[in-house]
Design goal:
Blueprint: E1 3-7, H1 16-29, E2 34-39, H2 44-50, H3 59-63, E3 74-76, E4 81-84, H4 93-96, H5 106-112, E5 120-125, H6 131-139, E6 142-147, H7 154-170, E7 176-182, H8 189-201, H9 215-222, H10 227-230, H11 235-248
Parallel strand pairs: 1-5, 1-6, 2-4, 2-5, 6-7
Antiparallel strand pairs: 3-4
């Protein structure tokens, strides 16, 4: 039974996409069959993996019912997993699908047609709480929330949790919040105080493996390879490997 996991934070700059692609690459290295769905109109994951490659079909085409999900899946040899790429047209999908019955479950229907081929589907969400993210949540059983303590917002996390609770009560869909991933970590008092505040006030698990502020992660991102291939002995690669093990349990 494959699981579907969304990586979500409506705030930008929290290493959401970097976490999505490197966790997916680590799971692939663990021998898992992985599909990454890029649901961000900025296409950050798509560009990080494939550079400026153009695609005949994307997740946008799937959502507007132009193609079947299997027609919008491409393999990445460097990352070791399959990808359903994004494109800028996703930015207008809220308006385009406004009158579409069942618009909140379009991604779930699409993923359901292909997920049996995979051990896990990971959805890199857009930095918003609009229709795309609601689609991701309704397709998922689990949610991971990356936060950067430097740009931390308690209200931001509470907003995500409120959205999930509204889906549970309004649409009857239960999503498990697996926990919070600390990214761009630097061992400073102010950072550790923020993390302690999250533990004390949010009531959501904080994963024990933090992702350090590590240049190798950024360099790998720009060279279109996972950090575990670019710099396997770096702190960033080791942290993502350990986090991926923790997440898989």
């Amino acid at each position: 039974m494959s699981k579907v996991v969304s990586v979500i934070n409506q705030k930008g700059g929290v290493a959401k996409t970097t976490t999505s692609i490197n966790v997916a690459a680590s799971w692939s290295k663990m021998g898992k069959k992985v599909l990454l769905v890029d649901l961000d109109p900025q296409s950050s994951a798509t560009h990080s993996i494939f550079g400026e490659r153009e695609f005949e079909s994307t997740v946008y085409d799937v959502l507007v019912n132009r193609v079947e999900a299997k027609q919008a899946i491409y393999s990445s040899k460097d990352f070791g997993f399959d990808v359903m790429p994004a494109e800028i047209l996703l930015s207008g999908v809220d308006i385009q699908l406004a009158a579409h019955y069942g618009r909140e479950r379009l991604l779930k229907k699409a993923i359901d047609t292909v997920k049996r081929k995979y051990d896990v589907v990971i959805v890199d969400c857009s930095p918003s709480l609009g229709l795309l993210t609601v689609n991701a949540l309704l397709a998922s059983k689990e949610v991971i929330i990356p936060i950067c303590p430097e740009y931390f917002s308690l209200k931001g996390i509470e907003l995500i949790l409120d959205t999930i609770n509204n889906l549970r009560t309004g649409l009857g869909h239960k999503v498990e919040v697996r926990g919070i991933v600390i990214t761009r970590y630097r061992n400073r008092k102010i950072t550790n105080d923020v993390i302690q505040k999250v533990r004390d006030e949010i009531g959501v698990k904080v994963f024990s493996n933090y992702i350090p502020d590590n240049i190798s992660v950024e360099e790998a991102h720009h060279r279109h390879v996972p950090v575990n291939k670019y710099a396997p002995s770096s702190k960033g690669a080791k942290a993502y490997a350990a986090l991926s093990e923790e997440l898989w349990v």
